[in-house]
Amino acid sequence: MKAYERTAAIPLAPIPQNRVSRVLPGLMVAVAVAAAATVAGTFVPIVGGPVFGIVLGALAAALVPRLRGHRCAPGYAVASKPVLQLSIVVLGTGLSLQQVFEVGSSSLPVMLGTLAVAVAGAWLLGRMLGIEGDTRTLIGVGTGICGASAIAATSAVIKPKQADIAYAVGTIFTFNIAAVLIFPPLGHLLGMTTHSFGLWAGTAINDTSSVVAASFAYGGDAGAYGIVVKLTRTLTLIPIVIVLAFLTARREARRADPGGHGRPRLRDMPWKRIVPLFLIGFLAAASLDTIGVIPPSWHVPLSETGTFLITTALAGIGLSLRMADMREAGHRPLLLGGLLWVAVAGSSLGLQALTGTL
Question: Does 9 score more than 70 pLDDT?
């Protein structure tokens, strides 16, 4: 009876109009901040629009108290979740699965090894430093896979606090900049080939723009190889997000049924949460690019669109931030990010030496 009443009421209630009017103010603010961040990113590409998005959003919210009001909050929520999920799907259009398989045969051991170091290191070192679970998960995934994009995809399923996301993005950004400055001269000092440096940059640097900056600065075909390794590494998002979504759903099922002795049945798990639609969309977009449905001339506009969407999402997160939450975490997340960065960079070189690709 309740289902019937709810269905019958739908035509009478102006839900879409009300929702648009609630969402539009905050969403427009997030888009405006993202536009400013994109412009700033073109002048300072080593930083990039997404990082500027969260920084400018946080500054705007701190300087203009009205932006922190309830009127804008629904729009920020839309920016930080649905827009964020859409950005992951759009970014999938630049991933050719054919290139993944070609590069993966030689670089897969290094990619999986560095990912394992990042995830295990985040769990172990994060616990030793007393960092809460979501923060260390985001820093570990961001360090091990692809920076802000991985943090965005992971945030969509584990639902962390906005301060956790901001800390993770800030930490990844800090060590990306360090890598761009340190890796090329260190690579020449070690006498690395262009392929080995491209593999190092693609596995030990997180953000795509930073991989491009470091590997092209090295010279030769390190740039082209580093980009393909980086895109291949992005595909590991799929199993990681599915596992995290499963663990989150299981935890919520335990909370909802305390009498279940902590062992919820698989058939009772919310499978739409465990395999999110945006992840299916990401894989579908990559498949379309692989079979040639997406023309090559569309790659740059789609990549720019995906980057702008992720910038909008991070702007919404920045606008929702409370600085008091940031201050509570202190310096420990930054220390965790630094330790993981060194561990991943070192393990990438070590695994290359073991596999004969150095």
Answer: no
List pLDDT tens digits, range 113-170. 999 999 999 999 999 988 878 888 999 988 888 777 788 778 878 878 877 888 788 7
C-alpha to C-alpha distance for 8 and 4, rounded to whole angstroms: 6
263 φ, ψ to 5°? -130, 75
List the structure tokens of 280: 């299916």
Residue 329 has pLDDT above 70, yes or no: no
- Report how far residue 47's alpha carbon sits from residue 149's, in angstroms, rounded to the nearest whole number: 14
Cα atoms found within 13 Å of the Cα of residue 259, Cβ hemisphere only: 0
Torsion sign (Cα): 156, 54, 83, 148: negative
pLDDT band at 258 (very low <50, low <70, confident <90, very high): low
Using DSSP's 3-state secondary structure scheme, residue 322 falls into coil
Maximum pairwise Cα distance, the chain: 74
Contact (Cβ atoms closer than 8 angstroms) between residue 138 and residue 154: yes
Structure tokens at 269: 């798990």
Cα 321 from Cα 164, distance rounded (Å): 10
Return d(Cα 328, Cα 319) in angstroms, integer: 18
pLDDT above 60 (res 236) = yes
CA-to-CA distance for 105 and 299, rounded, in angstroms?
25
Instruction: Say how far apart CA 209 and CA 158 lie, in whole Å.
Output: 26
What contacts 244, CB < 8 A, 6 or more positions away? 137, 141, 154, 157, 158
**For residues 156 and 284, what is the distance between their CA atoms, to the nearest angstrom?**
18
Q: What pLDDT does residue 153 have? A: 79
Q: What is the DSSP string of 144-155?
A: HTTTHHHHHHHH
Instruction: Select the highest-mean-pLDDT range: 1-10, 15-24, 203-212.
Output: 203-212
